[in-house]
Amino acid sequence: MTCSSAGWLKVWNLESRKQIGKDWRDGKREVSTIALSPDEKKVVSVSNDDVVKLWDIGKQINVLIGHASYVKDIAISPNGLILASSSLDQTALLWGLENCQPISAPLQYAHAVTCVSFSTDGKLLATVCWDKSAYTWDVSAIIRDAGHTEWVKATIYLPGGQRIMTCSKDGSLRVWDLDSEKHIREDWREENSDVHTIALSPDGNKVVNGSYDVVKLWDIDIGQVITKWTGRRCGVTSVCWSREW
């Protein structure tokens, strides 16, 4: 497959050197980068704008919106479940290709991020910036099918080190098993409000979360609210525990 500054993508037969099918059109924008999924059923493309486009056999099926400036590079994980994108907005994003939603907070940099690449086992992500440096990120603990429908705002390790909890803008808190990479109980729901932050109690038995206008205390074992504090008119952006609790 090739892409062009004229705004098209083309599929070619290497033996006959002839084009297969018709052009895939992306309007009049230059198509700068493409990536093929491991099963060869989907293609991801980047043009001179801040979005990523997902294609299926010549038809555009989704647009991934999350960057604030031009997207420079894209890469698909070896298992075909995660897409990484880098941008001039000084971030890299990880997306779930099944639901086309971000599965982590943006990876922040001090300069534009120009390249992204997964290791062959998918556990590491390499990025390159305009600061003349290359960075390596450990993504083996990222949930590949996070299930959250909005951005994951925060994560904490639970006692024992084999489980993590995530909270999301979609109003849910989830507990995950790191070995199976699956959530292991029903979601804890924060109705009609995104969850900004979470913190584990010093004894490891409770979790406190902050949302738009409420702070809630949860019992980890049963996943139920013990108490809550209301009356705030602005979002709660951070919570922490006293060591004496």
Automatic annotation (TrEMBL):
<keyword id="KW-0677">Repeat</keyword>
<protein>
    <submittedName>
        <fullName>WD40 repeat-like protein</fullName>
    </submittedName>
</protein>
<feature type="repeat" description="WD">
    <location>
        <begin position="64"/>
        <end position="105"/>
    </location>
</feature>
<keyword id="KW-0853">WD repeat</keyword>
<dbReference type="InterPro" id="IPR036322">
    <property type="entry name" value="WD40_repeat_dom_sf"/>
</dbReference>
<feature type="repeat" description="WD">
    <location>
        <begin position="106"/>
        <end position="140"/>
    </location>
</feature>
<dbReference type="InterPro" id="IPR015943">
    <property type="entry name" value="WD40/YVTN_repeat-like_dom_sf"/>
</dbReference>
<dbReference type="InterPro" id="IPR020472">
    <property type="entry name" value="WD40_PAC1"/>
</dbReference>
<dbReference type="InterPro" id="IPR019775">
    <property type="entry name" value="WD40_repeat_CS"/>
</dbReference>
<feature type="repeat" description="WD">
    <location>
        <begin position="145"/>
        <end position="186"/>
    </location>
</feature>
<dbReference type="InterPro" id="IPR001680">
    <property type="entry name" value="WD40_rpt"/>
</dbReference>
<dbReference type="Pfam" id="PF00400">
    <property type="entry name" value="WD40"/>
</dbReference>
<feature type="repeat" description="WD">
    <location>
        <begin position="24"/>
        <end position="57"/>
    </location>
</feature>
